[in-house]
Amino acid sequence: MNSLENSSYDGPLGDLVHRLTQSFTSEHSRPPQWIVAAPGRVNLIGEHIDYNDGYVLPMAIERYVAIAAAPRLGKGSRVASIRSVNLNECEQIDLDELPKPSLPPKWTGYMGGVFAGFQNRMGADKFSQLPAMDVMFESNVPIGGGLSSSAALEVATATLLEVVSGITLELEEKALLCQQAEHDYAGVPCGIMDQFSSVFGQENAFMLLDCRSQQIRHVPFSSDHVSVLITNSNVKHELSGGEYAQRRAQCDSALEKIGAASWRDVTPDDLESNKSSLSEIEYSRASHVVSEIERTQKAAVAIESGLWETLGELMYASHHSLQHDYEVSCCELDLLVEIARGVGRAGGVYGSRMTGGGFGGCTVTLIESDKVVEVSEHIQRQYKKQCGIDAQLFASLPAKGAHTVSS
Ligand code: GLA
Question: Which of 43, 396, 44, 41 has its CA nearest to residue 229?
């Protein structure tokens, strides 16, 4: 491989990759042959509408899952022997008998699901030629924090298998293969946002993803004056899995009663004229979906025009809708948004909202760049004071999607 000292690689992943290379080399007494990385994501707006044919506006973040690997030495069974650095656990995936899905999902399941997807894609014969491997991975995407740590692991695994097998998937196919792994192996009927963000991420751009056509329009974002601040509430309420599937079912049932083929065909007027045929809950869920689709399109235009106040207002409105109509927020996320709102425009904050699946995880705040440190400290202090929990905050620029670091 290109040793990292000799390679020109020095992106934001640098520390993670260097550390991982050292750990791999010291554990296996040889350097890795392949290193790949895939980012987490933060969604600026367009929440819980990727599975409703809506638009989403995420960006990949400068937090990655990095995987290092090399063929195993000597003869032995065809396994991938994988160490998770974060969890300090080592597990084996038998390449001749891939693991079956099991609940609750483990990290081996996310990876095993992608191996299974590759086996289908390559055909059993070619898959059986993959070598036994020593694998090690480390993540600096907060785990379970609503920033798609699992999608990043899936996409990094797919990137590793591409480089090992020499088979490069179309980007869209790769994202869908990883989404399927999440459905089958984690039991979460997620939409396409997380895996698409990790695969298609670009520096200096948000991506407006049309989840109906699966087309992406990159929306340039390189303002020196405006930053994206991510705040991890450090809470995760246990409801998330079942509640997610339930929200999907409520939306599907509302759409069927409205009699439309897609939420994209439902206008606010259609919703009102069908109100009496929907249950109260279905009407609330539908109100969120219809209004969030509209807000997300407006948000993309606002970014293109540099209208940060407008974007900020759309973010607050999105949070309100997720809190009251979609009911996927929680008191800690509401508190973080309120603290940011309290800082207000005078203090440099444009807008704030929960991001990701909800019931805990992170908020995303749009803020004047020169106020990031001051406002971060304020949010952290107030949050600790009011609910006793330490929040983690960091700003991120839009980051590059999954790629091979070294091979
Ligand atoms: C999770 C899912 C995504 C999306 C978000 C909510 O992150 O994996 O597909 O539905 O929740 O927007």
Answer: 396
Residues 6+ away with beta carbon under 8 Å from 229? 364, 365, 366, 367, 372, 375, 376, 393, 394, 395
Q: Which of 48, 246, 322 to mutate to test the pocket of ligand 1 (most atoms within 8 A of CB)?
A: 48
- With a 6 Å cutoff on the Cβ, whether 319 touches ligand 1 is no
CA separation for the pair 189, 51 (Å, rounded): 9
| 407: its two tokens | 């091979």
| Centroid of ligand 1 to alpha carbon of 61 (angstroms) | 16
Expressed in angstroms and rounded, the spacing between residue 6 Cα and the centre of ligand 1 is 39
- Alpha carbon separation from 48 to 187, 262, 332 (Å, rounded): 17, 15, 19
Annotation marks residue 194 as catalytic: yes
Digit-coded pLDDT (tens) for 275-318: 999 999 999 999 999 999 999 999 999 999 999 999 999 999 99
- Say whether pLDDT at 7 is over 60: no
Q: Which residue puts its alpha carbon closest to atom 11 of ligand 1?
A: 357
Cα 353 to Cα 27, 51, 112, 183, 365: the distances in Å are 42, 20, 34, 26, 7
Degrees to nearest 5, angle at CA 177 with 124 and 139 = 110
Tell me the three state secondary structure of residue 331.
helix
Residue 370 pLDDT: 97
The closest-lying atom of ligand 1 relative to the alpha carbon of residue 151 is 8
Q: Which of 246, 292, 297 is nearest to 271 (CA)?
A: 292
What would the two tokens of residue 390 be? 């330490």
Each residue's pLDDT tens digit, 132-171: 999 999 999 998 889 999 999 999 999 999 999 999 999 9
Tokens standing for residue 402: 């999954």
Residue 328: the pLDDT is 97
The response to whether residue 32 sits with its C-beta less than 6 Å from ligand 1 reads: no
Q: Which position among 125, 194, 265, 334 bears the catalytic label?
A: 194
The pLDDT assigned to 103 comes to 81
Q: What is the pLDDT of residues 100-133, one digit of tens each?
A: 998 888 899 999 999 999 999 999 999 999 999 9
